[in-house]
Design brief:
The chain is mostly helical and 234 residues long. It has 11 helices and 2 strands. The protein is elongated.
Length: 234
Amino acid sequence: MRDALVAAAFRLFLERGYEQTTVDDIVALAGVGRRSFFRYFPSKEDVVFPDHERCLADMTDFLAASGDTDEPVRRVCDAARLVLRMYAENPSFSVQRYRLTKQVPGLRAYELSVVWRYERALAEYLRARFAGRADGSLRADVIASAVVAAHNNALRSWLRSDGQGDASATVDHALGYVQSAFGGPPVAPVPVPAGTAGGAAGAYDADDVVVVVSRRGAPLWRVVQEIETALARD
């Protein structure tokens, strides 16, 4: 019944347009009553995003099952991959929804509220893991935002290509930036050579060894940038 309602709704959205389609139109095409529709979907907007509640529940359970030995940044990146899996299960439907959402401002606003709920779930997990650390809540919020931004950038790139290519590889590449910037254990400070204390960050390589020096408080993006530049040198 639920799948039949979704199929009927999207058929009408494509034929008539979202705004011109009513709940009565959807139930008539599906051959059910209005009560059956609202048993599954609180509103017409919800039929456009039928799997997000399940995915959010799966993400919450996945994070709740984490152990103390799980690296927290890697864990939230893996949690974001659950959202990708939902989209990749049905590429044609995901592409149709993406196109429809771009055309309807109300659906874009609804989508933003869904994204915010995912981000909040990631941030709450990270706050618990970073409890007691200096700026733990700030770090949690920044990382959660970065994970969502990286995931959505890659996901939309895949959707714009009509679902062609390897979505997992695209998302893995994007999340790799977050992991490299925020993941892993703290690195022991490296003594700063004379004359470099005023600089934001610098990288010096010799043979196969790269040493990064940075003044205290330098932004992480600048440190990562210097590492990438050093590794790219011949």
